[in-house]
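Blinded run. Sample ID left blank on purpose so nobody reads anything into the name before looking at the predicted structure. Input follows.
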Amino acid sequence: MAIFGKNKINFPKMHYTGRGEIMMRIVNLGRTGLFVAMRGGVLASLGGRSHWRSADDVRLAAQAENIPICDLVVRTLP
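Blinded prediction complete.
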């Protein structure tokens, strides 16, 4: 369950790479159906974009910038 705070979302558990970097997390915005990438609870911009139509598009954008991304997708409820 996500805890919503002022200007960011705090998730109970962060995912880290083997080098100790925080992995990006894909979040599906249930009401709109859009997908966003978050890193450390903060909305991330990849290639100048912050919203995508599918989780695969987010993964491709992260791979293009060599940014580690978690394979789990968090889905928010409307």
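Unblinding after everyone has recorded impressions. Helices lie at 55-64.
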